Structure formats: structure tokens, C-alpha cells
Amino acid sequence: MSFKKIVALCVFISFLFSCKSEEYIPETPQIIPAPAELTINKGYFVLNNDVGITYEDPFKISGEFLKNFIENGSTIELKDTNDIQFIMDDTIKHQEGYTLDIQPYQIIIKAKTDRGAFYAVQTLRQVLPTEFENHTISEEKISIQCMTITDAPQFQYRGMHLDVGRHMFSVDFIKKYIDALAMLKMNTFHWHLTEDQGWRIEIKTYPKLQEIAAFREETLIGHYSDQPHQFDGKRYGGFYTQEQVKAIVAYAESRHVTVIPEIELPGHAQAAIAAYPNLGCTGEQVEVATKWGVFEHIYCSKDETFEFLENVLDEVVALFPSEYIHIGGDEAPKTKWKTCNQCQSRIKTEGLKDEHELQNYFITRVETYLNSKGKQIIGWDEILEGGLAPNATVMSWRGTKGAIEAAKQKHHVVMTPTSHCYFDYYQSTNPNEPTAIGGFLPLEKVYSFNPIPEELNKDEAQYILGAQGNIWTEYIPTETQVEYMAFPRMLAMSEVVWSKNETKNYTDFTKRVEHFNTRLDALDINYANHLYEISGALISDDDTSAYALSTTIDDRTIRYTLDGSAPNITSEIYKDPIPVNRSQTIKAAVFDSENQLGSVFSETINYHKAVGKTITINKTPHRSYSGSGPEGLINGISGSDSRYGDKEWLGFWGEDLEIIIDLGEETYIDAIETRFHNGNGQWIYAPKGMIIILDDKEFEYNYSNSTDLILNVEYKLVSKTRYIKFIIPNYGTIPDGKQGAGNKAWTFIDEIIIN
Questions:
Q1: Strands 413-415 vs 464-469: parallel, antiparallel or unpaired
Q2: Among 496, 568, 627, 658, which residue has the least CB neighbours within 10 Å?
């Protein structure tokens, strides 16, 4: 053997057994969600054709999964020996807990249940090379770092939702979606099966649900806020047969994922009423909805409707072994009930106070029936209206108020507030993002979510079962777009519900996401990659202002320009906040040593007389939409036209506002500008008017009811003043026939520009 070959062999052997060297520091595995305890040990386990696996029947699912994953992902064939061994350990307290001990000559998985062992397997899966995922690994020997992991989830309910009513997806995709949940140790798939725009589950007792309710004649083009509405003229629809449903449920069970079906009632029922008009209050023929929104045609409270629902639920219960059946309960306008003789008679005979108590009657009656079938109900937080059904679990989506109310009543709660859990919202301010329903939910905000509301004490907090991410599909017509909206936010949600809140670290998480993206590539999962995007903020101190740039991946270089040109590899390197004393546009991007990573960040600063001054607001912005605080209204930066939840918009729910800007000294002004979001589909309404007070001068302005998504307001005046006061009344209660009818409207205000 030549000298060079001997040297090369020695280097290779040294690498394999480098744990014996004090200088070698092993790399920590990049696992999502982060395990509770992880200790790196010396040595490697070598996975090859000499390795075997053993497991008893209680660990059949997890054992078979691991065996198939290794053998299907490589050329390795496992023997029937105990090199990889599953052991029952009743001393593990948590039903889903496990220990994973990778030793030089053995891998031992201990768990109390197969579910716990399955999650140990998913952790081991992430320790293996990503090439196992797409069967491209060529090595016959795989060295696995020795380590010990002790782990268990923080919450028992760890879920993801998918709406197939607005847009439908293939059985293969549903299975792929479930695979992703299982990989991330999520255990619940909430399957939203019925909607105004389509009924998606076969019910043999009622064939018109398949013939009529499952299809709409056309679909809205563009955004709901675009006027006038336009349609594609193409028939759309379909449904899952009961055999397909059984196959999906069985597939999910083989990955320890529970499927919870949702059958919407009493609202979001127009498709069913289109098939069977007698289920509605008027009996008139209606069409399956062709656009998005909330519709007044909801189930009538007559006995005939309950007979229909009970027959439907009988078939649903037979298909889904889950403890829960989701019955919706949200966004049910009471307009038809108010004028319906049968509903009014029901209110009278049952001694109910109003239509809200009729909703409680409706939900409670369905709950009683499902309880008789051995099932529990779960519903959106509107099921609190008129009193909560006796055994109901609440899914809190309109913020945390419903969760707090339900938990204090000792009802179980699943947290899914729009502010942190609605993955149909925009996840970036990039102008090339695909059309979304609105809002702004970046990865960091998902990751920051703590499912336990701070208003709950320790005893009340135990009623919070967990949380889930929701994907509503009005603007998500394809499977690749579902993935784009889900990932990487699903990764963040998995860590929210699995890992300890006090140990979460977003910077560390993003580095693990960067690594995990290679696994998503191997799995052919389309994902949004905003890791290399830049964030900016204006900082002011002692009448000086500067603009600070940052990025979550901290070992990258930011380069920027101030002349309007796009930055390149030779542009100035960002080191300190950029002084701001005039209007200008800052453009920046992240670079490694050779190339640009991610997109160009651009921020236009409109330097006006209030920038950096003092502002006070009589109300605290809603914590879900607090942006960068009151100072964000006078930082020279305007919010996005569509992402009302970004850091430049402040949101207030149902509150009248008084805003005071202190310019510090008497100052001549000749114009005031601001703007309000007016996305009525998201319960956001521009105010009907506003009063501006300059010292002792008062100016009142009234607006016509605008249908524009953004209401721009500009006031020309000439005055000298130090203080500017704004009195902004909330729009009030959302009227009947509109989305969110009966609820208080949101007020969203953007930059206040003083010139």
C-alpha cells in the first residue's frame, strides 16, 4: 500500500473514532421540535447490513415504521437481532414520552406506549441523513452520533387543520399532509369537510349531498375585496367516498394521528341547503356558494333539520374513531332565524331569551345526540353564545377571550387564535407573495405563541389542551400552495405545542429550520424560505433617528444602498444603524461570501414633522396586533396595503381612540394624513369619522362608507400648534349580512403623517 493511501486510511479511521480525541467536538443534531433533554455522548453507532431490529407487538407501529424507513431509504436490510431494540418502560410518566439512547453497539428506545416509541423513531429519523427520505443514499455504512434523549410533549393536543370545502385536494396529498404532521410529532388532523362552497364527504342516506352540494358552478377570481366580483365560469367540486375516508383514517392511525372531522352547523351550511332546501328557514332554492364569506342561509331549528343532522352524524361517527366530532358553530348569522316562524316558535316553547340562546339550544341538542353515541363535541368559540353546551370543548379562534371564559368554566380548550395560528395569512411583506386572505403572520410570531393565556391561574391553565395551526383555502387552490403556506410555520407550531416554552430560542430555531429545509427538499415539500429576509426598525433618541437592520441568521452579512439601486456583493456592509434626517429609501440584502441570499429588502422612510416625537394613545393596541407600539404610528414608515397585521398597523377591537402627538414645541403644520384599513371580510371597518383638535381648534371630518380596502384620509390646514389630538370612534357593531355580524368591528390605523 502506498504511503498516501496509508495516510488517507488513517485519516478516515480517525474520523470514525474521533470521539476518542479530546479535540473533536461533535455536532448537536438539529431536531424539530426540540427535545426536552439531549446529551451528546462519545462514539458512533454504525448502521449497516450487520444491524438488526427487534420489537414486540405493543410497538408494532413504531417498529415497522423504523424498519421500513431504513430499508426503503437505503440498501440496508435489517436482521432479526436486538441492535435496535424497543423496550416497554412503565416508569416513564408521560404516555407520549420516550428515551432514545444511541450507544456504540446498540440503539435502545424506551417508552410506555407505542405512541411514545413512535415519537422516538421520528427523532431518530432526523438524526439520520436526509437522503433516507428520498432513497438517494449510497453509503452502506452510516455513522450515527451517540447521544441520549429524554423527551415528552408539553401539550396533549398538537394539531393542524385543513379546509377542503373551499378547495379540495387528493387522497395522496391528504396522506402526505398527515405524514408531515407525524414527522413533527403532531397528533391531530382537523379535517374541515363541509362548507357553504362545497360538501366533501359521502353521506349515503342523502345522495344529493354528492350530486348537488359537492359542486359549485363557478369560483370567485381574485380577492374578495376586489370590486366588482368576477368569476371563472368553471364548475368545481368533488367529494371523498366513504372508502377513501376509511383509508385516510387508517393511514393516520398507522402514524398515531387522530382525524377529527368537522361537520359545520348551524352556519356555513349553504351547500347542504342547496341540496335540500327544506333544511333552511325559507325553503327556497339556493345555490352552492361561489364566493367566500358568511351567508345568511343556515340550518333551521325545526325537527326535520335535526333528523337530517343526526342521520349524517350517524354515518360520520361510523367512519371516525376519534373521541371528538367538530361541529363548527361559528359565523352563524341569525337574520333568517329572526323572521322564521318555526325558529321563533322554538324560542318560545323552549323558554329561550333570543336567537343566541337558540344557537345554544341547537349546539346542546346536537351534543346530547353525539354524547349518546360515545362522542364529545368540539366547536369554534361562538358556541359560547347563549351559554356553553355541558360537555363541549372550545376551539378559541377570535383571540383568547373565548379560551379564558371557557377555561374558567372548567371546559377544555384548544388554542387557535387568528393572531398566531392562521396559516392562510401572509407570512412575508415581499410584494411577490401569493394572494392571501389578508393579515400578517411571520414565522417568528408563530414561534412566539404561548398557548396558555396569562389571565389563567395554574388550576385554570390545565384546561388548555394545546393548539393547532389552521389552513383555510379560499385563496389556496393547489397542493403546492398549501405546502407553501404551511411550511415552515408548521415547524414553529410543532415546537410551540411540544417543547418547553421557557427554553424556546428563535435564533436557534431558525438555524434548525435552515437545516430542516434540506429534509423538506428531499420529501418534495414546497416551503416558503424567508430565513434570509431583513427586518428594519426606526430608533429615535434625543431628537436623532436612525434605521436599524437585522436578520435572524446572524452569521450572514447585510449589504445596503441609499441611492435606490439594488444592493450587490460590493455594496456597503451594514454595521451600525443608518442615520435618518430626511426622506429616503433603504435597500438591503443578505449575502454570504459570494452570493445574495433571499430577496431585496426595501423601506421607504417618509421623514415628517412627527417622526421621533412623543405619542400617547388612550387604549392599548390589541396584543395580537400591537405592531411596534404607538411609536410605530409616527416612525415615517407606512404599513402594507394588504397585510393589516404587519408591524406598522395598530389594531384595536371595538374601542374608541384618543391619540395625542406632542411635537415638543410650537410647530407650523399644513397637512395631516393617515389611513385606515377597511377589510370588511376580516371584520375591519374604517371609522365613520374623526375629530382633530389643534390646541383649542377643533375640526370634524365625516367619511362616506367607502368600499376601498384602504381608506386614505388627508386634511389640508394651516396652523401653529404643539399638540395634535385625534378622536377616532370605533365603527361599532358589524351589521347583519356581513362577516362577523353582531361582533364589534376592528379599527386598524397606519402612519400619521404631519407636514
A1: parallel
A2: 568
Grid coordinates belonging to 564? 435606490
By C-alpha distance, which of 524, 531, 426 is closest to 180?
524
Q: Are residues 138 and 118 in the same domain?
A: yes
- Taking the alpha carbons at both ends of the chain, their separation in whole angstroms is 83
Cα angle 138, 32, 59 (rounded to 5 degrees) comes to: 75
DSSP 569-598: TTSEEP-SPEEESS-EEEEEEEE-SSSEEE
Do 191 and 142 belong to one domain?
no
Q: Are 389 and 328 in contact (CB under 8 A)?
A: no
**What is the domain count for the chain?**
4
Q: 275 in a domain, yes or no?
A: yes
Whether 594 and 569 have beta carbons less than 8 Å apart is answered as: yes
β partners of residue 592: none
Residues 259 and 180 in one domain: yes
> What's the pLDDT tens digit per position in 468-484?
999 999 999 999 999 99
Cα separation values, 325 from 318, 378, 486, 519, 668, Å:
11, 6, 24, 33, 63
723 and 583 both lie in a single domain? no
Query: Could you give phi then psi for residue 57, rounded to 5 degrees?
Result: -55, -40
pLDDT of residue 295: 93
Distances (CA, A) of 734 to 250, 595, 749: 43, 51, 18
Digit-coded pLDDT (tens) for 519-543: 999 999 999 999 999 989 888 876 7
Classify residue 75 by its DSSP letter: S
Are 477 and 167 in contact by the 8 Å Cβ rule? The answer is yes
**Domain residue limits at 673:** 614-754
The answer to whether residues 44 and 146 touch, using CB atoms and an 8 Å cutoff, is: yes
Q: What is the Cβ-side half-sphere exposure of residue 455, based on CA atoms within 13 angstroms?
A: 10
Longest Cα–Cα distance in the chain: 99
Amino acid at 7: V
- pTM of this structure: 0.90
The answer to whether 260 touches 325, Cβ cutoff 8 Å, is: yes
- What are the φ/ψ torsions at residue 564 (nearest 5 degrees)? 90, -10
User: 470: Cβ–Cβ under 8 A, 6 or more apart, which residues?
Assistant: 161, 163, 190, 397, 416, 421, 422, 423, 424
Decide: helix, strand or coil at residue 212: helix
Query: Are 728 and 654 within one domain?
Result: yes
Q: What is the CATH number of the domain that holds 723?
A: 2.60.120.260
Closest of 270, 288, 166 to residue 216, by C-alpha: 288
At which residue does the C-alpha cell 324560542 appear? Answer: 347
* 247 three-state secondary structure: helix
